[in-house]
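Hi F.,

I've been meaning to write this up properly since the lab meeting, where we talked about keeping a consistent format for the predictions we share between groups. The idea is simple: the sequence comes first, exactly as it goes in, then the structure tokens exactly as they come out, then a line or two of notes. No screenshots and no reformatting. I'm using this chain as the first example so we have something concrete to point to.
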Amino acid sequence: MPTWVAVVGMLGSLILGAGCFALWVIDPPVAFASYLVAVGGLGLGVALWFGSPAETALLIGDAGVGVEDGRDVSRVRWFQIKTLRIRGDRVTIEADKKTLEFSLGANTRGLSYLLKEAAERVPNILDVDKSITEGLPAPDEKAGHEQTIVDDQIAGVSCAASNEPIKFEEDALLCPRCGQIYHKDSLPERCLSCDAQLKGYALRA
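Output, unedited:
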């Protein structure tokens, strides 16, 4: 929160409290009490408007990155991401056919964990100045909570190795690092996207 917003909020709260006291508690009411209520309410409203941006919910894990907007979740898998960059106050994640965006300050703990996971899974996508990461909190997995994915669409996707369409969810295996999708009968030794070991490590969809 900017300093001026905090100052306006505190002054607005004090003036609003004084106005309420002078208007409804003191008998007879102070003549200018209604003006104090109006000014204090305006100051408090300005502080709430500028000081409480909506936090962006980030979903980060084996299935990739998701940005929640109300009830809708836009998600991309790690192997689909072409670049993750920060310019000004905007974080942009560009994938094959989709772009996710959110404000730099909308979820700093989530962003910190996102950068950590991206550096471990797909480091070649990162386009982030080091000075930005130094200003973020330390990545902490405990800062969020685990959530089961219930709307992930796998059936109909083609296997990355054989190009064979996956007809049933149980036929799909995922790379544990980048989330690349393979048919269980065409699983290579190593991932074609990130070179991670697959035999014995692949995840079920």
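Notes:
The mean pLDDT is 89.
The chain is about 30% helix and 20% strand.

If this format works for you, I'll send the rest the same way.

G.
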